[in-house]
Amino acid sequence: MYTALASARHGARVTLVSATPLAGSSSYWAQGGLAAALSEDDSPDLHMADTVRAGRGAVRESAARALCDEAPAAVEDLARLGVRFDADRDGRLALGLEGGHSARRIVHAGGAATGRRLIRELSALVAEDPRINVLEGRRATAVLAPEGRCVGLRLLDGHVLASAAVVLATGGAAALWERTTNPAGATGGGLLLALRAGAALADLELVQFHPTAVRAPNGGDGFLVTEAIRGEGAHLLDASGERFVDELAPRDEVARAVQRQMVLTGAASVDLDMREVDPALFPNVVTALRRAGIDPERELVPVAPAAHYMMGGIVTDLDGRSTLPGLYAVGETSCTGLHGANRLASNSLTECFVFGARAAQAASSEPPPDSALLARDPEASGATGPPPALTAESRNALWRHAGIERDREGLLELVADPHPLVRLVGASALARTESRGAHQRTDFPALDPDLDGMHVTVHAGADPVFQTWV
Fold first, then answer.
1. Is 233 in the same domain as 342?
2. Boundaries of domain holding 450
3. pLDDT tens for each residue of 338-364
4. End-to-end alpha-carbon separation of the chain, Å?
5. Residue 118 lies in a domain
6. What is the pLDDT of residues 382-414, one digit of tens each?
7. Which residues contact 470 (CB under 8 A, 6 or more apart)?
8. What's this model's pTM, rounded to 2 decimal places?
9. Residue 209 backbone phi and psi in degrees, to 5
10. Which contiguous run of DSSP H or E holds residue 73?
11. Which of 147, 143, 146 is closest to 165 using CA atoms?
12. Which of 143, 229, 244, 350 is 20 to 30 A away from residue 165, measured at CA?
């Protein structure tokens, strides 16, 4: 939505295609905020240092520099658009602290309801903008690229949209895993559209596991308890009631520590103690927990890791351009290399706005599509049709063989899976013969310094290759 609004500012006419109502996106559920260096004791350089450190030697530093330098302006632009961010009594932005950050720099709106607030404001602006035509309840089934250049989209109903550029902003793929914090639709549909059209994907083996997803049998299972709650003093406790990890360490470290405790005790979860946290700061979290039968003001909250965020996606440059001319990607469906092997908390929402603005400017300058290309090859190059069905067996296989720990034997099983993205995750994880960040191989437990800054890149029908990106 932000990319559409920014494109309209540049004078472009935009069609926004959404398979669900706009409020049905993953962003609606985002509890974290926007990371931006806004306080006097912070700076873009400090923000970048934290991003690079969390990314475990795999961050594309040019992408991190762009995000950290441009994040404050993105927050200011959203405020001008009408997003009301949380402020203290003096009217200054209330900045939160999350894992891996060395300073308070997380901007929230409505506490842990940031995504909901952003979606509400942006969807209203999109609906009112005369340059933006919204097609809700419509699904794209093919990126049209008949001669190696994207010239539009084909929809499920057969309708063709010709366009100077197509921007995919379809979210990630963490719902491919059996245990996930994501809504059911986050299964990489945009990645498959791009792959079929000829664009490259990268870093599919790098999926982040959030350490504090609720473990409950009564409808609350997988509900994410935001890291900001640990930033306000919540603790993780083992079976004897003792703390066992620095709760504000980067997520890969905390998730592995939780997993180790579960293996040691045979328990299905550890406990999150948020009894000393002011419930007024996180009303939607408290409400959701009570709905699941847990009173966080009086009880410990059972939590365990769950697949949360895919660092990989469609390969793009710093302006959102994919390897297929005319095709762009932003947000979790893209892979700029910003997040490396372990995303720094709350960089992902900021990424949507910083790189969404960049993609909007670049895409708006693309030349008009050649309608003759569509006329000559209306079916486009590559496969069309809806994405393949994702089975419970494939989701379970990913969870067992490409979870927090992996090994060659299990990954080989994934390479034979019926689902194409499951196969690519397996192949990419096999190629990365080391342990780094969110990718932990028991058969290659050490980090390989020769793979610093390397990205496992795949094209349709080809074996994964390592690339370095400037």
1. no
2. 392-468
3. 999 999 999 999 999 999 999 999 999
4. 28
5. yes
6. 456 667 789 999 999 999 999 999 999 999 999
7. 60, 62
8. 0.95
9. -100, 120
10. helix 61-80
11. 143
12. 350
